[in-house]
């Protein structure tokens, strides 16, 4: 039996697009299914100023396939030298949608991030005042903290004190991986939300390590134990508007992943929506998929949802997806959920209902 599901065109509230040949190679994978994406600023060097965000946005627009219905939403990379006035001006001008906090050294290209949180107090106060959201990579970098505990410790040591010190600051806990993070979001009902990735709904830490090491399942924050994956599935499919999709699709050329010191990142842009449909169907939550992919994030960012629609169709035979995307910067392996996907995106160019 064929099933259809029509949704408002989704948004991805956490995406890595890179630059140059990699950008050109992978951008069509997101632009095909998504209307907007919040683009991470962790280039080398990072996107720190409004002018840099404008230039990066122009490079993304120039790389879009002809006729694509996709808008990049830009972010600034918070450093201890960030000028509050520049952030506020960029936000007022509609150039940026958020500012991204990376604790220095927490993940890929985070060397310019924050070491001393007191040094960014002025920027955070100005953001709270002006309503500029802060996206956080929520992991401490203290080497004495076990990598599987770094998210939970970040909440206690950094996030909670930071939110108390900056009332009114709107915070998105990005790519949460623990029940601790989901519980923290639920316990605080204003000015706080969380994104959840596609891959953290599928893999737990055993997938990375049991029966051989799987570099394409390695990402940061690293996947945790099964109880946490179940907590994320429950949060994502709950209908609670504080949880929404941010894929953290993070392309690295295969040679950089399949290495003695492999990079962190799962590339899920190509098959994210079929995977999500599978997960939501498994939990009897298909009617709540649209909230997660297309409504909750826009509401938190105070933007209108998209008018255009996409249709997902479930077929009897598994859908086929490329194993890798060839880019000018090398092949990028597409995330393998480990089971056949029967859902596929039917027609992304389907109409703006007001036009019919
Ligand atoms: O797995 C990840 N990859 N996590 C991050 O936080 C950064 C990202 C990247 O840029 O590759
Ligand atoms: Zn990321």
From TrEMBL:
It is an enzyme of class 3 (hydrolase). It catalyses: (S)-dihydroorotate + H2O = N-carbamoyl-L-aspartate + H(+). Pathway: Pyrimidine metabolism; UMP biosynthesis via de novo pathway; (S)-dihydroorotate from bicarbonate: step 3/3. One of its GO terms (molecular function) is dihydroorotase activity. Keywords: Hydrolase, Metal-binding, Pyrimidine biosynthesis, Zinc. GO terms for cellular component: cytosol. One of its GO terms (biological process) is 'de novo' UMP biosynthetic process. Residues 12-303 form the Amidohydrolase-related domain. Zn(2+) 2 binds at residues 100, 137, 175. The modification N6-carboxylysine is found at residue 100. Homodimer. This is Dihydroorotase.
């Amino acid at each position: 039996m064929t099933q259809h599901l029509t949704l408002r065109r989704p948004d991805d509230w956490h995406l890595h697009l890179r630059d140059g040949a990699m950008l050109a190679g992978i951008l069509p994978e997101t632009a095909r299914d998504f209307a907007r994406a919040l683009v991470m600023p962790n280039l080398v060097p990072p996107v720190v100023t409004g002018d840099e965000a404008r230039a990066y946005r122009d490079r993304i627009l120039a790389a879009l396939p002809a006729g694509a219905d996709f808008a990049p939403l830009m972010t600034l990379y918070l450093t201890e030298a960030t000028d509050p006035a520049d952030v506020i001006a960029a936000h007022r001008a509609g150039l940026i949608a958020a500012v991204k906090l990376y604790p220095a050294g927490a993940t890929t290209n985070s060397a310019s991030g924050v070491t001393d949180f007191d040094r960014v107090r002025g920027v955070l106060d100005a953001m709270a005042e002006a309503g500029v959201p802060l996206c956080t990579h929520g992991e401490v970098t203290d080497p004495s903290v076990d990598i599987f505990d770094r998210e939970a410790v970040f909440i206690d040591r950094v996030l909670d004190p930071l939110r108390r010190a900056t009332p009114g600051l709107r915070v998105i806990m990005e790519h949460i991986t623990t029940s601790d993070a989901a519980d923290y979001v639920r316990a605080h009902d204003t000015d706080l939300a969380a994104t959840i990735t596609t891959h953290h709904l599928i893999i737990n830490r055993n997938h990375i390590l049991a029966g051989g090491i799987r570099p394409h399942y390695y990402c940061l924050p690293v996947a945790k134990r099964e109880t946490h994956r179940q907590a994320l599935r429950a949060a994502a499919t709950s209908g609670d508007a504080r949880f929404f999709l941010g894929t953290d699709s993070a392309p690295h050329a295969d040679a950089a992943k399949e290495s003695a010191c492999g990079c962190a990142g799962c590339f899920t842009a190509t098959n994210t929506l079929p995977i999500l449909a599978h997960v939501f169907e498994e939990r009897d939550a298909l009617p709540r998929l649209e909230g997660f992919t297309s409504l909750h994030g826009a509401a938190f960012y105070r933007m209108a949802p998209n008018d255009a629609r996409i249709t997902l169709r479930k077929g009897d035979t598994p859908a086929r997806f490329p194993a890798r995307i060839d880019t000018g910067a090398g092949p990028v392996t597409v995330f393998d959920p480990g089971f056949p996907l029967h859902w596929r995106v039917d027609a992304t160019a389907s109409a703006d209902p007001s036009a019919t």
